[in-house]
């Protein structure tokens, strides 16, 4: 049972690491001349949503920071579940497996190797826990 807890926590930490990487990359990516040109174009592209005027650059930056915070929060929330009980219930494990699978597929389409690998690890960890947790327990008859 201890190994299942470790596998579960590795899946949680994978989400936290992707979130931290997202924030660090968003905040500290070097400004090359090409990137500066793209940022200027994004700032010049106005967006009006729900009565608020902004630009594509601010929307992109806010979205990136929010994504990082949410990934960290998702991982931390799941880590806290292991403090409240030995192992979260099957419904939570199923949600984690589904979310990590979808995140993994999206990362393959849009991102680079680091988030792909980390989200693959998260998916595989939650999938292993799901398979083991729903496996029926077979009792032998003693005579």
Tell me what you see in this structure.
- By secondary structure, the chain is mainly alpha-helical.
- It has one domain.
- Helix content is 77%, strand content 6%.
- The protein has helices at 2-28, 33-43, 56-84, 90-110, 113-134, and strands at 46-49, 52-55.
- It has a two-stranded antiparallel ribbon.
- Strand 1 (46-49) and strand 2 form a beta hairpin.
- Helix 1 runs antiparallel to helix 3.
- It is elongated, with a radius of gyration of 20 Å.
- The protein starts with a helix and ends in a 9-residue tail after the last helix.
- The mean pLDDT is 91.
Estimate the helix proportion, in percent. over 70%
Order of helices and strands: HHEEHHH
Beginning-to-end CA distance, first to last residue: 28 Å
Number of domains: 1
Strand order of the largest sheet: 1-2
Structure, briefly:
Helices cover 77% and strands 6% of the residues. It is mostly helical.
Keyword list:
single chain; mainly alpha; 6% strand; 143 residues; two-stranded antiparallel sheet
List the helices and strands and how they pair.
Elements: H1 2-28, H2 33-43, E1 46-49, E2 52-55, H3 56-84, H4 90-110, H5 113-134
Antiparallel strand pairs: 1-2
Helix pairs in contact: 1-3, 1-5, 4-5
């Amino acid at each position: 049972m201890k190994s299942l807890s470790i596998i579960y926590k590795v899946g949680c930490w994978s989400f936290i690491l992707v979130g931290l990487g997202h924030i660090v990359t968003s905040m500290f990516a070097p400004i090359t001349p090409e990137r500066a040109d793209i940022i200027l174009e994004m700032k010049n592209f106005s967006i009006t949503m729900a009565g608020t005027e902004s630009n594509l650059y601010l929307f992109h930056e806010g979205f990136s920071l929010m994504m990082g915070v949410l990934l960290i929060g998702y991982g931390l929330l799941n880590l806290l579940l292991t403090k409240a009980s030995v192992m979260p219930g099957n419904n939570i494990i199923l949600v984690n497996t589904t979310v990590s699978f979808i995140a993994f597929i999206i990362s393959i389409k849009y991102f680079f190797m680091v988030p792909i690998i980390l989200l693959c690890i998260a998916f595989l960890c939650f999938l292993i826990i799901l398979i083991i947790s729903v496996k029926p327990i077979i009792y032998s008859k003693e005579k």
